[in-house]
Write a structure and sequence with these properties.
The chain has about 130 residues and is mainly beta. The chain is built from one helix and eight strands, in the order H-E-E-E-E-E-E-E-E. The chain has one domain: Jelly Rolls (Sandwich). The longest helix has 4 residues. It starts with 5 loop residues before the first helix and ends in a 20-residue tail after the last strand.
């Protein structure tokens, strides 16, 4: 059994900070669960370009308010506490936060731990 607390991750290499977000990675590829699990804060007033070409992601908002815009179609979806969205088609999207949003994110395949989005909003594939 794996037991972790958020406080076990904060301040370690499993807490990845960018200009727009803070991702506290609770379960990673090394945990051998077949997915990774993240507690993520999207900072108020930011918009992040994301395109997970190598991963599927499901997101559950537990605090805050924002929106997801699908780049290809222009569709916009409001996100608030209690909302789940799943990027099941490797959708290019823009994630914006009106106020800080706290999200629980699940990635398949799992990420290794220190990944950040590249200039196209992509996480690299874990090849090992």
């Amino acid at each position: 059994m794996i037991i972790k607390k958020l406080s076990d991750v904060v301040g370690t290499e499993a807490e990845v900070v960018s200009e727009n977000w803070i991702s506290r990675r609770l379960l990673l590829k090394k945990d051998k669960m077949g997915f990774s699990l993240h507690d993520t804060i999207i900072k108020a007033g930011t918009t992040t370009k994301i395109h997970y070409q190598n991963h599927l992601e499901a997101v559950y908002c537990i605090e805050g308010k924002g929106k997801v815009e699908l780049v290809d179609s222009g569709e916009v979806f409001e996100i608030e506490a209690g909302t789940v969205y799943a990027l099941d088609q490797h959708d290019k999207h823009l994630l914006s936060a009106e106020v800080d949003m706290r999200l629980v994110c699940v990635f398949n395949p799992p990420i290794a731990g220190t990944e950040k989005h590249d200039e196209n909003g992509v996480f690299p594939a874990c090849l090992d």
